[in-house]
Amino acid sequence: MKKIIALTLILVLALAGCSSAGGAAKLGLGQITSIGSSNDLAENDEGVMVGTAQVDTVMAAVMVDDKGKVVDIKIDTAQTRVNFDENGVITSDKEAEIKTKRELGNDYGMIKASGIGREWFEQIDAVEEWMTGKTASEIANMKLNQNDSGANIPGEADLTSKATLKIDDYLKVTAEAIANAG
Protein backbone atom coordinates (compact mmCIF):
# COMPACT_ATOMS: atom_id res chain seq x y z
CA MET A 1 0.00 0.00 0.00
CA LYS A 2 2.88 2.37 0.82
CA LYS A 3 4.21 1.76 -2.70
CA ILE A 4 0.91 2.80 -4.28
CA ILE A 5 0.69 5.93 -2.13
CA ALA A 6 4.29 6.83 -2.95
CA LEU A 7 3.72 6.28 -6.67
CA THR A 8 0.57 8.40 -6.57
CA LEU A 9 2.49 11.21 -4.88
CA ILE A 10 5.24 10.95 -7.49
CA LEU A 11 2.65 11.17 -10.27
CA VAL A 12 1.03 14.17 -8.59
CA LEU A 13 4.36 15.94 -8.20
CA ALA A 14 5.34 15.12 -11.78
CA LEU A 15 2.19 16.76 -13.06
CA ALA A 16 1.85 19.52 -10.44
CA GLY A 17 3.66 22.12 -12.49
CA CYS A 18 1.50 21.62 -15.57
CA SER A 19 -0.87 24.33 -16.68
CA SER A 20 -2.45 25.28 -19.96
CA ALA A 21 -2.81 28.58 -21.72
CA GLY A 22 -6.01 30.33 -20.77
CA GLY A 23 -6.62 28.68 -17.40
CA ALA A 24 -5.31 26.54 -14.64
CA ALA A 25 -5.07 22.81 -15.17
CA LYS A 26 -6.82 20.45 -12.78
CA LEU A 27 -5.42 17.19 -11.47
CA GLY A 28 -7.40 13.96 -11.35
CA LEU A 29 -6.37 10.56 -10.08
CA GLY A 30 -7.82 7.18 -10.97
CA GLN A 31 -7.19 3.65 -9.76
CA ILE A 32 -8.50 0.18 -10.59
CA THR A 33 -7.56 -2.86 -8.50
CA SER A 34 -8.30 -6.49 -9.32
CA ILE A 35 -7.28 -9.98 -8.22
CA GLY A 36 -8.40 -11.65 -11.45
CA SER A 37 -4.90 -12.91 -12.30
CA SER A 38 -4.56 -14.93 -9.08
CA ASN A 39 -4.08 -18.69 -9.42
CA ASP A 40 -5.47 -21.44 -7.22
CA LEU A 41 -3.21 -24.05 -5.70
CA ALA A 42 -1.99 -26.42 -8.45
CA GLU A 43 0.93 -28.67 -9.26
CA ASN A 44 3.75 -26.90 -11.13
CA ASP A 45 6.20 -28.42 -13.66
CA GLU A 46 8.39 -29.75 -10.83
CA GLY A 47 5.46 -31.53 -9.18
CA VAL A 48 5.23 -29.00 -6.31
CA MET A 49 1.87 -27.61 -5.25
CA VAL A 50 1.90 -23.80 -5.54
CA GLY A 51 -0.56 -20.95 -5.82
CA THR A 52 -0.31 -17.25 -6.52
CA ALA A 53 -2.31 -14.37 -5.10
CA GLN A 54 -1.94 -11.43 -7.49
CA VAL A 55 -3.16 -7.88 -7.05
CA ASP A 56 -3.05 -5.63 -10.11
CA THR A 57 -3.49 -1.92 -9.51
CA VAL A 58 -3.72 0.34 -12.55
CA MET A 59 -3.18 4.03 -11.75
CA ALA A 60 -3.48 7.24 -13.72
CA ALA A 61 -2.75 10.86 -12.91
CA VAL A 62 -4.24 13.29 -15.42
CA MET A 63 -4.03 17.06 -15.84
CA VAL A 64 -6.90 18.59 -17.82
CA ASP A 65 -7.30 22.16 -18.97
CA ASP A 66 -10.38 24.34 -18.54
CA LYS A 67 -11.88 22.81 -21.71
CA GLY A 68 -11.50 19.27 -20.37
CA LYS A 69 -8.61 18.33 -22.65
CA VAL A 70 -5.75 16.22 -21.32
CA VAL A 71 -2.65 18.37 -20.81
CA ASP A 72 -0.53 15.56 -19.37
CA ILE A 73 -1.08 11.99 -18.24
CA LYS A 74 0.95 9.33 -16.46
CA ILE A 75 -0.23 5.71 -16.28
CA ASP A 76 1.39 2.84 -14.38
CA THR A 77 0.55 -0.61 -13.05
CA ALA A 78 1.61 -2.30 -9.83
CA GLN A 79 1.46 -6.05 -10.41
CA THR A 80 2.00 -7.67 -7.00
CA ARG A 81 2.38 -11.46 -6.86
CA VAL A 82 2.55 -13.50 -3.65
CA ASN A 83 3.28 -17.23 -4.01
CA PHE A 84 2.13 -19.78 -1.44
CA ASP A 85 2.49 -23.55 -0.96
CA GLU A 86 -0.05 -26.29 -0.19
CA ASN A 87 0.06 -25.38 3.50
CA GLY A 88 -0.83 -21.78 2.78
CA VAL A 89 2.71 -20.66 3.66
CA ILE A 90 3.92 -17.64 1.71
CA THR A 91 6.97 -18.61 -0.35
CA SER A 92 7.64 -15.17 -1.82
CA ASP A 93 10.27 -12.89 -0.27
CA LYS A 94 8.20 -10.67 2.01
CA GLU A 95 11.00 -8.08 2.13
CA ALA A 96 11.46 -7.83 -1.64
CA GLU A 97 10.74 -4.47 -3.24
CA ILE A 98 7.70 -4.56 -5.51
CA LYS A 99 8.30 -2.43 -8.60
CA THR A 100 5.64 -1.12 -10.96
CA LYS A 101 5.75 -1.90 -14.66
CA ARG A 102 7.16 1.56 -15.36
CA GLU A 103 9.83 1.15 -12.65
CA LEU A 104 10.82 -2.21 -14.11
CA GLY A 105 11.36 -0.61 -17.52
CA ASN A 106 13.17 -3.06 -19.81
CA ASP A 107 13.18 -5.68 -17.04
CA TYR A 108 9.40 -6.09 -17.25
CA GLY A 109 9.95 -8.36 -20.25
CA MET A 110 6.95 -7.58 -22.44
CA ILE A 111 9.22 -7.11 -25.45
CA LYS A 112 9.74 -10.91 -25.64
CA ALA A 113 6.04 -11.38 -26.35
CA SER A 114 5.60 -8.16 -28.32
CA GLY A 115 4.90 -8.54 -31.99
CA ILE A 116 6.02 -4.94 -32.49
CA GLY A 117 9.31 -5.11 -30.56
CA ARG A 118 8.31 -2.61 -27.88
CA GLU A 119 8.46 -2.86 -24.09
CA TRP A 120 5.43 -2.03 -21.87
CA PHE A 121 6.65 1.48 -20.96
CA GLU A 122 7.21 2.32 -24.64
CA GLN A 123 3.69 1.20 -25.49
CA ILE A 124 2.01 3.05 -22.62
CA ASP A 125 4.06 6.17 -23.48
CA ALA A 126 2.58 6.02 -27.00
CA VAL A 127 -0.94 5.65 -25.56
CA GLU A 128 -0.37 8.62 -23.21
CA GLU A 129 0.93 10.71 -26.12
CA TRP A 130 -2.18 9.80 -28.14
CA MET A 131 -4.46 10.78 -25.21
CA THR A 132 -2.79 14.17 -24.74
CA GLY A 133 -4.92 16.96 -26.22
CA LYS A 134 -8.08 14.86 -26.22
CA THR A 135 -11.24 15.03 -24.09
CA ALA A 136 -12.68 12.17 -22.04
CA SER A 137 -15.21 11.50 -24.80
CA GLU A 138 -12.54 11.34 -27.52
CA ILE A 139 -10.46 8.95 -25.40
CA ALA A 140 -13.48 6.76 -24.58
CA ASN A 141 -14.21 6.51 -28.30
CA MET A 142 -10.72 5.24 -29.18
CA LYS A 143 -10.91 2.84 -32.12
CA LEU A 144 -10.22 -0.68 -30.90
CA ASN A 145 -9.01 -3.89 -32.50
CA GLN A 146 -8.96 -7.34 -30.93
CA ASN A 147 -5.83 -9.44 -30.54
CA ASP A 148 -5.70 -13.21 -31.10
CA SER A 149 -7.04 -13.89 -27.59
CA GLY A 150 -9.98 -11.49 -28.08
CA ALA A 151 -8.64 -8.67 -25.88
CA ASN A 152 -9.17 -5.06 -26.93
CA ILE A 153 -6.03 -3.29 -28.15
CA PRO A 154 -5.58 0.20 -29.67
CA GLY A 155 -6.96 0.38 -33.21
CA GLU A 156 -6.11 4.01 -33.94
CA ALA A 157 -4.01 4.23 -37.12
CA ASP A 158 -1.23 6.16 -35.37
CA LEU A 159 -1.10 3.63 -32.50
CA THR A 160 -1.32 0.20 -34.15
CA SER A 161 2.45 0.01 -34.73
CA LYS A 162 3.27 1.49 -31.30
CA ALA A 163 0.91 -0.23 -28.82
CA THR A 164 -0.62 -3.69 -28.79
CA LEU A 165 -1.27 -3.93 -25.04
CA LYS A 166 -4.69 -4.71 -23.56
CA ILE A 167 -6.25 -1.25 -23.31
CA ASP A 168 -9.55 -1.60 -21.42
CA ASP A 169 -8.26 -0.92 -17.88
CA TYR A 170 -6.13 2.00 -19.12
CA LEU A 171 -9.19 3.59 -20.74
CA LYS A 172 -11.27 3.04 -17.57
CA VAL A 173 -8.66 4.46 -15.19
CA THR A 174 -8.12 7.46 -17.47
CA ALA A 175 -11.87 8.17 -17.54
CA GLU A 176 -11.96 7.97 -13.74
CA ALA A 177 -8.98 10.30 -13.40
CA ILE A 178 -10.51 12.85 -15.79
CA ALA A 179 -13.84 12.70 -13.93
CA ASN A 180 -11.98 13.27 -10.65
CA ALA A 181 -10.25 16.35 -12.05
CA GLY A 182 -13.48 18.32 -11.92
Overview of this protein structure:
The chain is of the alpha+beta class. It has one domain. Helix content is 27%, strand content 29%. The protein contains 5 helices and 6 strands, in the order αββββαααββα. Strands 1, 2, 3 and 4 form a 4-stranded antiparallel sheet that branches. The longest helix has 15 residues. About 3% of the residues have low confidence.
Oligomer: single chain
Give, in order, the helices and strands.
Answer: HEEEEHHHEEH
* Low-confidence runs: 17-21
Number of helices: 5
What does the average pLDDT come to?
90
Number of strands: 6
Per DSSP, what share of the residues sits in E-state strands of 2 or more residues? 25-35%
Shape: globular
Structural class by secondary-structure content: alpha+beta
Total tally of structural domains: 1
| Euclidean distance between termini CA atoms | 26 Å
Biggest sheet architecture: 4 strands, antiparallel
Helix content: 25-40%
Query: Which value, in Å, is the CA radius of gyration?
Result: 18 Å
